[in-house]
Task: inverse folding
């Protein structure tokens, strides 16, 4: 079983996923705009350049996302009701990724050894998405 976080953006999906790709590497599995969808979707011309779906492999998981469009309800709001947990293999990898994620956002908890046996930190990226970086010290 695997979990694939899905992120919604209000017009910033492409920028966010290019940012994540610059940190984690990899190639997009798919990146489609609403212009790629069928005309009967009824997406207004001014919103057809927004991202309809994007998938980026990150380790064993897939990070997915899209922009919201006016015909499908309320615009997305920055993610304060969820977090994405990233599990690097080593402290060195965590130390490399964490400051990149936090740049332009903020750190809620610095990376540190914890009582539960992890090297752990929490931050928010420049797009308002909350991240947890967690290295299991019992298995590294």
Result:
């Amino acid at each position: 079983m695997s979990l694939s976080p899905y992120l919604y953006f209000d017009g910033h999906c492409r920028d966010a996923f290019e940012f994540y790709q610059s940190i984690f590497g990899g190639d997009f599995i798919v990146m489609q705009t609403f212009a790629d969808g069928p005309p009967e979707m009824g997406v207004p011309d001014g919103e057809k350049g927004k991202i309809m779906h994007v998938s980026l492999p990150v380790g064993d998981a897939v990070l997915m996302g899209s922009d919201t469009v006016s015909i499908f309800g309320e615009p997305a709001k920055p993610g304060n009701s969820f977090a994405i947990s990233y599990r690097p293999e080593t402290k060195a990898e965590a130390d490399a990724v964490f400051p990149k994620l936090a740049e332009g956002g903020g750190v809620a908890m610095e990376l540190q050894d914890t009582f539960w046996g992890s090297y752990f930190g929490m931050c928010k990226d420049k797009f308002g998405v909350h991240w947890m970086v967690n290295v299991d010290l019992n298995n590294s």
In short: The chain has two domains: 6-70, 83-136. The helical segments are 13-24, 91-102.
